[in-house]
Amino acid sequence: MMLSFFDQFMSPTYMGVPLIALAITLPWILYPAPTSRWVNNRLLTLQGWFINRLNQQIFLPINQGGHKWAILLTSLKIFLITLNILGLLPYTFTPTTQLSLNMAFAVPLWLATVIIGMRNQPTAALGHLLPEGTPTPLIPVLIIIETISLFIRPLALGVRLTANLTAGHLLIQLIATAAFVLLPMMPTVAILTATVLFLLTLLEVAVAMIQAYVFVLLLSLYLQENV
């Protein structure tokens, strides 16, 4: 029995063992493995076209040095999209509603972009902390502000993904509960509520894909500043 609307975001356990590792591992088996054939089936062709289109949007403004990250960011993007969409199915658990998991993705990748910038072009990397043409009295204040904004980036990445998915799941559950309660009393209103629920579910599918895309896009922008 669900005690509150937030119980759906608790990590499920079986015999005291958290199942979040299983929820993270299983999505990879849903994707077909590439073959050595000259002509692939429709699913592989659609999958390759979809990945190529997204990669063109992400890596177009990045120079050749940043293209080494293509495999990593593409895998992360597909992984997040899969987890987000599978979480919309009934009786499933969405690992990306956990801030700890999203921060585990955001912090190491953001830190890697900062380290690359400090190693390859330290002057340009430190130059981002002070905009050109800043008045002398404002230099200490702006350096502090830009430093804080730099360290807030991974937190913003994780919180954005967590908040959007959590809000969507809560809204779906609220409207579904309302439709279920109104059905015996006001069937017409319940049908209208169920229609709204269906449209909201379609919207949440789009949000699940967009949020994964935004997560990887922001990481690519951070990478662009440092390569």
Automatic annotation (TrEMBL):
<feature type="transmembrane region" description="Helical">
    <location>
        <begin position="171"/>
        <end position="199"/>
    </location>
</feature>
<dbReference type="GO" id="GO:0045259">
    <property type="term" value="C:proton-transporting ATP synthase complex"/>
</dbReference>
<keyword id="KW-0406">Ion transport</keyword>
<keyword id="KW-0999">Mitochondrion inner membrane</keyword>
<keyword id="KW-0813">Transport</keyword>
<keyword id="KW-0472">Membrane</keyword>
<comment type="similarity">
    <text>Belongs to the ATPase A chain family.</text>
</comment>
<protein>
    <recommendedName>
        <fullName>ATP synthase subunit a</fullName>
    </recommendedName>
</protein>
<keyword id="KW-1133">Transmembrane helix</keyword>
<keyword id="KW-0496">Mitochondrion</keyword>
<feature type="transmembrane region" description="Helical">
    <location>
        <begin position="138"/>
        <end position="159"/>
    </location>
</feature>
<keyword id="KW-0812">Transmembrane</keyword>
<keyword id="KW-0375">Hydrogen ion transport</keyword>
<feature type="transmembrane region" description="Helical">
    <location>
        <begin position="12"/>
        <end position="31"/>
    </location>
</feature>
<dbReference type="InterPro" id="IPR045083">
    <property type="entry name" value="ATP_synth_F0_asu_bact/mt"/>
</dbReference>
<dbReference type="Pfam" id="PF00119">
    <property type="entry name" value="ATP-synt_A"/>
</dbReference>
<dbReference type="GO" id="GO:0005743">
    <property type="term" value="C:mitochondrial inner membrane"/>
</dbReference>
<dbReference type="InterPro" id="IPR035908">
    <property type="entry name" value="F0_ATP_A_sf"/>
</dbReference>
<dbReference type="InterPro" id="IPR000568">
    <property type="entry name" value="ATP_synth_F0_asu"/>
</dbReference>
<keyword id="KW-0138">CF(0)</keyword>
<dbReference type="InterPro" id="IPR023011">
    <property type="entry name" value="ATP_synth_F0_asu_AS"/>
</dbReference>
<dbReference type="GO" id="GO:0046933">
    <property type="term" value="F:proton-transporting ATP synthase activity, rotational mechanism"/>
</dbReference>
<feature type="transmembrane region" description="Helical">
    <location>
        <begin position="69"/>
        <end position="89"/>
    </location>
</feature>
<comment type="subunit">
    <text>Component of the ATP synthase complex composed at least of ATP5F1A/subunit alpha, ATP5F1B/subunit beta, ATP5MC1/subunit c (homooctomer), MT-ATP6/subunit a, MT-ATP8/subunit 8, ATP5ME/subunit e, ATP5MF/subunit f, ATP5MG/subunit g, ATP5MK/subunit k, ATP5MJ/subunit j, ATP5F1C/subunit gamma, ATP5F1D/subunit delta, ATP5F1E/subunit epsilon, ATP5PF/subunit F6, ATP5PB/subunit b, ATP5PD/subunit d, ATP5PO/subunit OSCP.</text>
</comment>
<feature type="transmembrane region" description="Helical">
    <location>
        <begin position="101"/>
        <end position="118"/>
    </location>
</feature>
<feature type="transmembrane region" description="Helical">
    <location>
        <begin position="205"/>
        <end position="223"/>
    </location>
</feature>
<keyword id="KW-0066">ATP synthesis</keyword>
